[in-house]
Write a structure and sequence with these properties.
- By secondary structure, the protein is an alpha/beta fold.
- The protein has a single domain, classed as P-loop containing nucleotide triphosphate hydrolases (Rossmann fold, 3-Layer(aba) Sandwich).
- It has helices spanning about 1-15, 15-25, 50-65, 95-105, 105-120, 120-130, 145-150, 150-160, 180-195, 215-225, 225-240, 250-265, 280-290, 295-300, 305-310; strands spanning about 40-45, 70-75, 85-90, 135-140, 165-170, 200-205, 270.
- It has a seven-stranded parallel sheet with strand order 3-2-4-1-5-6-7, sandwiched between helices.
- Helix 9 (about 180-195) links the parallel strand 5 and strand 6.
Length: about 300
């Protein structure tokens, strides 16, 4: 295919990519915090419609209220608009509409090619963010999680932007999370993304304000106690078996996957998050601080606000 060969040609001609990755290990490279160290970088990941852009917008606004300097990056070339202030926007390098026209591709093919084209210009991405100074960097990723997690191109971008101090905020979709099998499917996806990128990962139940209190409590219980989740899966399987139009294969498969995760000691943990109500944002900040430290000075004098928000 001409467009794919063109993309490969871009990769081969851009021999400076690995040199840039090596340069990132030097003390003079990249983004820095006020104390001279690289700030934590949060990559917000999740399925389409999970609320990634909304979280970046809410977190940036909330962090500024606490006088935490949070800078935002958009890596989604297909975003129609973003409501946060971007320090780097991938759409300035690669336009999805231009890719569709130039290579005569549909939206899905254009998304794939656009992700690879961005990675082939990783040096330009690095030039855009080099020299930035902030307390924390939060990154909005493409709507299709597979474009971020399962393309080698994205691994390069994680290395360029993350500078060895990156972590993942994985968003569970609240509607899909209401069924036991849907919940397990997101557990699997989170685990696969974590395995693929090898970054510390925290799971958050996005848009938790959309769930009724009883449903919210049930979903959070599944995240904390896998035995409760397994019992719910058995109940779902029995219900499907009674349904003349549905078998129990899906729930049985989910039970098998859950047992595999139990054997591997994979415990998801789940924190409720509402960008609309600014709930759970303190937990995002605390996760980054727990992993990488720092930001202590910015939080002094605001602990009461943070504890109130977390409650």
């Amino acid at each position: 295919m001409d467009w794919y060969n063109h993309c490969l040609s871009d990769f081969e001609s851009n021999l400076g990519l690995h040199e840039w990755l090596k340069y990132l290990s030097s003390p003079d490279a990249g983004v820095s915090s006020q104390d001279g160290t690289a700030p934590p970088v949060l990559f917000v990941v999740g399925t389409a419609g999970a609320g990634k852009s909304s979280l970046v917008t809410a977190f940036q606004r909330w962090a500024r209220f606490l006088e935490v300097d949070a800078l935002a990056i958009n890596l989604d070339p297909g975003a129609e608009k973003v409501d946060y202030d971007t320090e780097f926007d991938v759409r300035d390098l690669v336009s999805l509409s231009d890719v569709m026209i130039e290579y005569e591709l549909g939206p899905n093919g254009a998304q794939i090619l656009a992700a690879d084209l961005v990675a082939s210009r990783a040096d330009e991405v690095f030039n855009e963010i080099e020299g930035l100074s902030c307390d924390i960097l939060i990154v909005d990723t493409p709507g299709q999680v597979e474009l971020f997690a399962f393309r080698e191109a994205s691994s390069h971008l994680v290395s360029v932007i993350g500078q060895g101090r990156a972590c993942l905020i994985f968003l569970f979709d609240p509607m899909l999370s209401q069924t036991p099998s849907g919940f397990v499917s997101q557990m699997l996806l989170s685990s696969i993304v974590h395995f693929r990128l090898g970054l510390p990962t925290a799971n958050f139940l996005s848009k938790s304000d959309l769930l009724e209190p009883e449903a919210l409590e049930r979903v959070l219980d599944w995240g904390e106690n896998l035995d409760i989740l397994e019992a719910a899966l058995y109940e779902e399987s029995a219900q499907q078996a009674r349904d003349a139009h549905s078998g129990s294969q899906r729930a049985e498969f989910a039970i098998g996957q859950l047992r595999m995760m139990q054997h591997a000691s994979i415990q998801p943990g789940l924190t409720p998050l509402s960008s609309e109500n600014e709930e759970g944002l303190a937990d995002v900040l605390t996760f980054a601080q727990t992993i990488f430290g720092g930001m202590a000075d910015m939080r002094d004098g605001y602990s009461g606000d943070i504890e109130h928000e977390r409650g």
